[in-house]
Amino acid sequence: MESSEIHERLNNRRFIVANNTQGLSGNGTVFHYLVDGGAITGTYHGGRIRMGSQVGRVTGSNTIELLYHCLTTEDEILAGWSRGEIGQDHHGRTTLHFVWGWLSGATGGASLVTSSLSTS
Fold this sequence. Notes:
This protein has a single domain (3-117), classed as Lipocalin. An 8-stranded antiparallel beta barrel has the order 1-2-3-4-5-6-7-8. The chain is built from 1 helix and 8 strands. The longest helix is centred in the N-terminal third of the chain and has 8 residues, at 3-10. The protein is mainly beta. The protein is globular, with a radius of gyration of 13 Å.
């Protein structure tokens, strides 16, 4: 997967969480990504996340890394990091498999995010 393919799979696309048992984001959380060359920005909200944003970069043919921060519905401010691998499920939907952690020292985990929402 080349950078242009990452752009095609992520840019202006929305994703929902398919599996994240250890994190705050869940099936009610929507992620929206924008890609400009090798730079990635994004926003997310829903579930226990009131609002959040991300900034990152393309790191390989099918990998990305992100820094993120959010305000939770309990008014907590949290920040973390993630490294993701872009793939495709058996339905042809783009998937993002992340390993992530909190910058505050709390433990992290792994999650699966699937594109199932249209652009815009």
